Amino acid sequence: MSEVIQASDVRRVVVLGAGTMGQGIAQVTAQAGYVTHLYDVDAARIGRAIESIKQATDRLVQKGKMLNEARSELIGALVPTSDLAQACRDVDLVIESAPEQMDLKVGLLREVKALAPERAILGTNTSSLSITEIGTRTAAAARTIGLHFFNPPPVMELLEVVRGLGTDEAVVAASLAIAKRIGKTPIVVNDMPGFATSRLGVVIGAEAMRMLESGVASAEDIDRAMELGYRHPMGPLKLTDLVGLDVRLMILEHLHREIGEQFRPPAILRQMVRAGRLGKKSGEGFYRWTESGPVPIAHKR
Ligand code: CAA
């Protein structure tokens, strides 16, 4: 491998995918002062993402949590684009945030590899897929690393840094330094299915769905149990709505294949994804999402 970039030399970032996570990650890297190209094949999705970053940061200014000048700099650092070659030219750090499908991620990163400088770090914001496999199939194992953000990325403190079998230690070190620069606290995890976070997180979510299916309690009361009894900031069903039911299903399917039966996706989750009830982003999941927040709905058993 040619010399990998030092964290202190990173100036330009490209975030691949302007969905919920890509949008939040771009906000974080732009706020840290990196020139941030936000790429998506769908130009309308990029437009919506930029608009929601503008709205979110506007609220922060109104609440007195961000200076107007800082907001202008953040917005100015964002470069929306559907031109991958333009986004990757001179890029130092790639953060791929495409849907949780191995072939999609590998295909995109192969294209990026051909377009980006050889010293660029190839980060992937996967929740559960193998970094080793992504790196090997991209033929760039040494500079491929998992950079797992949490929803909502501007608020959540953790960055799970996942080291693949072939990841160069210099890339791990640079990623840890970048994590601090963008205001996150990193943990380093070896490449095992579900890493440290998703493996534990989806178990609670899936069990809550099975409890709803079998009529243990209503969605609100299952959530309240964990919010008030365990001090989780939000219950597992509300959190599933926030993350996206489609995302949770893909993670569970992967962990079911890789680890075993305890990760079998609940039938209710499959049904709701088929019905397009994907949670907050589609307006309905275990709750109906309104301007003023989630509203309980009745679930058929
Ligand atoms: N940019 C910057 N700040 C933002 C923001 C944004 N886009 N959106 C919200 N905020 C800030 C708000 O300004 C607010 O700040 P203050 O508390 O200082 O006023 C703070 O975030 C909280 O926002 P709200 O008041 O709107 O909402 P809340 O208090 O109900 O908190 C929450 C919302 C942060 C989401 C909280 O409920 C929470 O922590 N929930 C759990 C989230 C979680 O577990 N995420 C991980 C999911 S798993 C995952 O993502 C990984 C995966 O692979 C699928």
SSE blueprint:
Elements: E1 12-16, H1 20-31, E2 35-39, H2 43-62, H3 68-77, E3 78-81, H4 84-88, E4 93-96, H5 102-115, E5 121-124, H6 131-137, E6 144-148, E7 158-163, H7 169-181, E8 185-190, H8 197-213, H9 219-229, H10 236-243, H11 245-258, H12 267-274, E9 287-290, E10 293-296
Parallel strand pairs: 1-2, 1-4, 2-3, 4-5, 5-6, 7-8
Antiparallel strand pairs: 6-7, 9-10
Helix pairs in contact: 1-2, 8-10, 8-11
Give the key terms:
NAD+ binding, 6-PGluconate_DH-like_C_sf, NAD, alpha/beta, two-stranded antiparallel ribbon, NAD(P)-bd_dom_sf, 46% helix, 16% strand, 8-stranded mixed β-sheet, binds acetoacetyl-coenzyme A, 12 helices, 301 residues
Beta-strand percentage range: 15-25%
Strand tally: 10
Q: How would you state the average pLDDT, rounded? A: 97
Strand order of the largest sheet: 3-2-1-4-5-6-7-8
Q: Report the major sheet.
A: 8 strands, mixed
Bound molecules: acetoacetyl-coenzyme A
Helix content: 40-55%
Give start-end ranges of low-pLDDT stretches: none
Instruction: Evaluate the radius of gyration.
Output: 19 Å
Order of helices and strands: EHEHHEHEHEHEEHEHHHHHEE
- Number of contiguous helices: 12
How far is the first residue's CA from the last residue's CA?
56 Å
Overall body shape: globular
Structure classification: alpha/beta
